[in-house]
């Protein structure tokens, strides 16, 4: 076996070369094991997964749909084809007996890594020292379980890109200020859409002393955004929009709200991955649509609707490299391990963190 595959999943991999690992045998065995384990297994897949993985998903969806589904599942094993924070969310929403598995433990999220609990605690203490106003914390679901626990314990909530507006509205009905992390863009775009001017928003940068803010700025702000972003969606620029408007004015532009403010504001439409999928499905035949989101989803939509022209807004094909880590070979090793009643790559959130995080997840599901 190649050294490349020397990791903890080795025991469950086929004893073949790299090329063979991608061949039909792997796919064939996955289908067989999926059928054999059908009574105890459900496979979830986020829209950004690759076609050779998503084909095995029993349920596909955006972050909100997958969280809702995870709360309803009754199968013992939940194989999550997505990234780490999604598997953690599924673990918190499922029962104690259920086992959540992430096929590749290296499938993280660079945005989620931009805020940790220590930084959030420090920012929270400092911000509260400089205002009498009640600050309500809201975290985007794209974060570590410890941050979900933080909002659970501090009367806040979690949101996804589908329900951010509803959750922020709820938060601002309970306090005078909103602290939103880790994605500044989703926070800014949503608040602006809700009528909050940019001047009332400040950005807290955890890498700067006091977040780079003065006490005066904190006092005057309604919204405190965290300095975090998705490197995939930051790849879309206003220059891409301008070039397209010039070359193909009839093309409609739809983007994910993780894109930066100028891109979001200049696009024709914006919404979560599920929203984008719906909008494209409803568009009349012959439509030309440029999409500002991850390339695997864009390519899948283009293949699904041959009567429409669906392209990426960026010529550089923005790819989520962590989602991309989930490959059929890791799916196979996970399935083999389940088949031997010895699951690997199990995601288990510590009990106390899960209990606090669940309060916030339930709050989110109730509000939306
Ligand atoms: P949604 O699933 O809410 O569309 O978010 C996209 C994303 O970036 C997931 O990591
Ligand atoms: Fe994280 Fe962005 Fe990838 Fe989503 S697309 S998992 S936010 S890096």
Describe the structure.
The chain has 3 domains: 9-107 and 322-349, NadA-like (Rossmann fold), CATH 3.40.50.10800; 112-229, 3-Layer(aba) Sandwich (Rossmann fold), CATH 3.40.50.10800; 233-312, NadA-like (Rossmann fold, 3-Layer(aba) Sandwich). It is built from 16 helices and 13 strands. It has helices spanning 18-21, 24-36, 51-54, 63-70, 84-93, 117-129, 145-153, 164-174, 184-193, 215-220, 238-247, 261-266, 273-282, 295-304, 328-339, 351-367; strands at 41-46, 59-61, 77-81, 99-101, 135-140, 157-159, 177-181, 201-204, 223-226, 252-255, 269-270, 288-292, 309-312. The strands form 3 sheets. It has a 5-stranded parallel sheet, sandwiched between helices. Mean pLDDT is 94; it is low at 1-7. Iron/sulfur cluster (SF4) binds next to loops.
Task: Please provide a brief summary of the model.
The protein is α/β, with parallel strands linked by helices and 368 residues long. It has helices at residues 18-21, 24-36, 51-54, 63-70, 84-93, 117-129, 145-153, 164-174, 184-193, 215-220, 238-247, 261-266, 273-282, 295-304, 328-339, 351-367; strands at 41-46, 59-61, 77-81, 99-101, 135-140, 157-159, 177-181, 201-204, 223-226, 252-255, 269-270, 288-292, 309-312. The protein contains 16 helices and 13 strands.
């Amino acid at each position: 076996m190649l050294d490349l595959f020397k990791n903890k999943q080795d025991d469950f991999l086929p004893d073949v070369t790299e090329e063979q690992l991608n061949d039909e045998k792997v796919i064939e065995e996955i289908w067989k094991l999926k059928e054999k384990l059908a009574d105890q297994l459900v496979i979830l897949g986020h829209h950004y997964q690759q076609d050779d993985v998503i084909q095995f998903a029993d349920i596909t969806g955006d972050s909100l749909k997958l969280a809702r589904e995870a709360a309803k599942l009754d199968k013992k094993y939940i194989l999550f084809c997505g990234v780490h924070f999604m598997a953690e969310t599924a673990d918190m929403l499922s029962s104690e007996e259920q086992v959540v598995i992430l096929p590749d433990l290296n499938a993280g999220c660079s945005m989620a890594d931009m805020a940790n609990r220590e930084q959030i605690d420090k920012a929270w203490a400092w911000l509260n020292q400089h205002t009498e106003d009640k600050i309500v914390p809201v975290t985007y679901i794209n974060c570590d379980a410890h941050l979900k626990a933080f909002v659970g314990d501090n009367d806040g909530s979690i949101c996804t890109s589908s329900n951010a507006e509803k959750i922020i509205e709820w938060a601002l009905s309970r306090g005078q200020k909103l602290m939103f992390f880790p994605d500044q863009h989703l926070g800014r775009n949503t608040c602006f859409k809700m009528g909050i001017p940019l001047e009332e928003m400040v950005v807290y940068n955890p890498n700067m002393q006091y977040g780079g803010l003065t006490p005066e700025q904190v006092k005057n702000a309604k919204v405190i955004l965290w300095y975090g972003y998705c490197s995939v969606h930051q790849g879309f620029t206003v220059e891409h929009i301008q070039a397209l408007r010039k070359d193909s004015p009839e093309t409609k532009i739809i983007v994910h709200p993780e894109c930066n403010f100028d891109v979001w504001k200049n696009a024709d439409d914006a919404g979560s991955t599920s929203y984008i999928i719906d909008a494209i499905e409803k568009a009349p035949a012959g439509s030309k649509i440029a999409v500002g989101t991850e390339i695997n989803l864009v390519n899948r939509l283009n293949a699904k609707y041959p009567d429409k022209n669906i392209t990426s807004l960026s010529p550089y094909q923005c790819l989520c490299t962590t989602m991309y880590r989930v490959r059929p070979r890791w799916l196979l090793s996970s399935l083999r391990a389940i088949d031997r009643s010895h699951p690997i790559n199990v995601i288990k959130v510590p009990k106390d963190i899960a209990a606090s995080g669940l309060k916030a997840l339930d709050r989110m599901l109730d509000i939306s």
